[in-house]
């Protein structure tokens, strides 16, 4: 399968490529801000929770990009660069000094790639229980059962599996609405 003419032309122009990657970054950032992630699926509405939601959505998109033919690998690298440039700027806005930003960025990078490894392993194995456990530990901060979030991630991964590069850069990643998934269970309550 060859690269579509639209994509080939897009990557001849650096400015258009940057805009396409920025659009993809905005789309996954918007998906990570959907209220249902926080109100229904238990992602903590904190700085850390928002970081985890952004990482989760970025990792899912990167999984798909890494399985597509060229120039998807270039888009994946540009997307990672864009996400980490934004994280760097956010740390500075929060008042972290220049000396502390580098150390925090290293920690954020290690956390991001560690999560990517865990999510990939569980999704590749089709192991719902392992996915649930890694999501509870990383995204939910050890709280809740994570069943609804795991279902959301599996449906997202399946939807992304059918998206080509044109679709990802055009319409954006096909993330489902989080409100359609089973909510977290409170102790003693039935979901």
From TrEMBL:
Xref: InterPro entries: Ubiq_cyt_c_chap, Ubiqinol_cyt_c_chaperone_CPB3, Ubq_cyt-c_CBP3-rel
Superkingdom of origin: Bacteria
Pfam families associated with the record: Ubiq_cyt_C_chap
Record-annotated Ubiquinol-cytochrome c chaperone domain positions: 40-173
Coiled-coil region: none
Family: Belongs to the CBP3 family. Belongs to the UPF0174 family.
Protein's UniProt name: Cytochrome b pre-mRNA-processing protein 3
Organism whose genome encodes this protein: Methylobacterium phyllostachyos
């Amino acid at each position: 399968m060859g690269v579509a003419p639209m994509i080939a032309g897009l990557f001849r122009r650096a400015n258009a490529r940057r805009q396409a990657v920025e659009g993809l970054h905005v789309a996954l950032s918007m998906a990570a801000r959907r209220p249902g992630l926080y109100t229904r699926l238990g992602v903590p509405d904190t700085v850390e929770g928002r970081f985890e939601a952004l990482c989760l959505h970025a990792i899912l998109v990167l999984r798909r990009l890494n399985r597509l033919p060229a120039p998807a690998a270039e888009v994946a690298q540009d997307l990672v660069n864009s996400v980490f440039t934004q994280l760097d700027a956010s740390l500075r806005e929060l008042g972290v000094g220049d000396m502390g930003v580098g150390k925090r960025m290293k920690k954020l990078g290690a956390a991001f790639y560690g999560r990517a490894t865990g999510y990939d392993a569980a999704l590749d194995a089709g192991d719902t229980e392992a996915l649930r456990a890694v999501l509870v530990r990383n995204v939910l901060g050890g709280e809740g059962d994570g069943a609804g979030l795991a279902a959301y991630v599996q449906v997202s991964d399946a939807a992304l599996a059918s998206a080509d590069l044109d679709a990802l850069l055009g319409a954006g990643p096909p993330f489902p609405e989080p409100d359609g998934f089973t909510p977290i269970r409170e102790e003693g309550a039935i979901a």
